[in-house]
Amino acid sequence: MQYGPAVRRRKLGAELRALRGQAGLTSGEAAARVGWHQSKVSRIETGRSGVRAADVRLLLEAYEVDDPQLRELLVVLAGGEDENGRHHWWHAYRGLLPPAYRDFISLESQACRVRTLETTVVPGLLQTPDYARAVTRAALGGLPEEQVRALVQVRLARQDVLRSEPPLRLSVILDEAVLRRQIGGPEVFAGQLRRLREAAQLPQVRIQVLPFAAGEHIGLIGPFVILSFPNISDLDVVVLDHLTSSLYLERKEDLQAYTDAFNSLQGKALSVQDSMDFIAGLGDGA
Predict the structure, then answer these.
(1) Parallel, antiparallel, or unpaired: how do β-strands 224-228 and 237-241 relate?
(2) Which InterPro entries does UniProt cross-reference here (predicted)?
(3) Residue 233 pLDDT class (50, 70, 90 cuts)
């Protein structure tokens, strides 16, 4: 169980070590190619030290890695700019967003699939502006209105992953409690229910409701997010949110346990169509 930056360093180092092996190079030979000392390559590969995006690009060139998607993912893990030297959009909010949130956004931006159980609120990727504003005000009471607006903008900007090419595949299980909690008042909440039904029409979005009638289930442990990445399954992580930080579970046993839990919850939840009917019924009465 680690915090985001440590996870990123370790996973980035492990992937660079694998790519070096595929290139048939020893750590000393790799260091010689880029003009470094061998110990620097070793520290990077073991995650003991951070690495700049520019250094990642040097190593990728030395290993003759030309897959643009893989290059972009590894550069993002280093916290750097994109392949054209441009900072990612969330850098504009770096003075506002805590590091743990920036780390989550950077990983989410490169994920190919997200599976999430939500027990309290609608996930950020599906929130309307008004709903996001109400959640932000409640979670961060006393925050100046200007900062609330900025955080809502961040929440909405994150949703671009659903419109990217290829789009993020999103599977959501909503506990019924999420759909009974009228955040923002009746009008705002009715708009949020409509948004859920609209999002469910997207081919890459799957929404299921876990009704109270399902009784006890493994989801009682609380909400979680599973992030999966293209090309590199070893990068997959489980994210658990806490009040002031996020924790990342990355061991294969943890990933398997949460994957099994998500699959089990999908079996207990309503079908996609029944879930939409359930949400529509709530909307009619909102």
Answers:
(1) antiparallel
(2) Cro/C1-type_HTH, DUF5753, Lambda_DNA-bd_dom_sf
(3) low
